[in-house]
Please model this.
Amino acid sequence: MEFNGNQTATDVNQTKPIRCIVKLGGAAITCKNELENIDEENLEIVSTQLRQALLSSDKVVGMDWSKRPGISDIACNVAGFRDKLSVDSTNFIVVHGGGSFGHFQASNSGVHKGGLQQPLVKAGFVATRISVTTLNLEIVRALAREGIPSIGMSPFSCGWSTSGGNLPVADLSVVAKTINSGFVPVLHGDAVLDDVQGCAILSGDVIIRHLAAYMKPDYVVFLTDVLGVYSHPPTEPNAVLLREIAVGEDGSWSITKPTLQHMNNQVEITVAAHDTTGGMVTKISEAAMIAKLGIDVYIVKAATSHSVKALSGELREKIPDDWLGTVIRFSREEVQ
Model:
């Protein structure tokens, strides 16, 4: 099963309807300035919120039956499954960023620039994949402990590759089979082969755009470490939270709420020096391309009451005045 920009969902075997695609921002689930350090508290809260918002049962029967560091016992509640007729599952997909995993290895070796024939780049490719797959495993385990039947999936192992850093085609057959079998795919940004430059970094935000184009979810949620998209870096005193961004048929976008004087599409963004995926710049660009498909996108701070509302889908009916986040949606009206 392959998808490119000229295909539609009717060209291939369609999966079960997808309710939501969730992007776990790396900065929201890791301590981004501390090498390979997971924010355990945030990850646990996010996992719980995903279960509460997207599964039909409140009863938690964990699926992580592996030994955890510092804990002698293995939590294997076999009896908890004997009375269950089925495993609770609402069709959704999780994609996560790297945060403090992978970016250091990639930027120090130049994996994102290509040149796989160079020993340093090849070593960095291996090191990057070790790092990002380590994080993927820990996220899968956190979701599994909440009773979410999650399966870790690496783009490299799925055969995805780029061309000049772009993703022209993605084989989604394994993802589709995973969903149809009742599991929740958990994908991540990855180091992949590139037919022009040898190798590249494929970001989670780009992955989500391709998944959304084929899977046609009801909505997409980006969970970040800030409340949403700001007019300036949120640490600056004049930064304003952009509540709603409209995307036109040509892909152009404009800020519709709040109304800002002397403001157009230029939003000032700061990207960390070690971030090889483009940070918020890529996020806004990919979110706009998703919204152009008629799919609402919510960018919201993870592990908050605002993220619960976004994940549950209740924002599709009406955006409450007290909700803090950024909505990016399609508008047939001409975007200024």
User: Anything to note?
Assistant: Residues 1-12, 269-278 have pLDDT under 50 and may be disordered. Residues 119-145 form the longest helix (27 residues). The CA atoms of residues 98 and 310 lie 22 Å apart. The first strand starts at residue 2 and ends at 3.
